[in-house]
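fyi for ur records
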Amino acid sequence: MTATAAATITTTRRRTRTGGPGDRSKLLENVLGWTLVVVIAMFVTQLGLM
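which gave:
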């Protein structure tokens, strides 16, 4: 294996975890999303906008 090939493999392995849709933290993402929805709903209700 040449140095260039080894560097390419190392760079590729570093780039594989981007935090995108394929990441394993789907549950945490859903919980945080719904928490944000509830907080915004409480804020809108307190301001009397609805």
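The two ends are 65 Å apart (CA to CA). thats all i got for now
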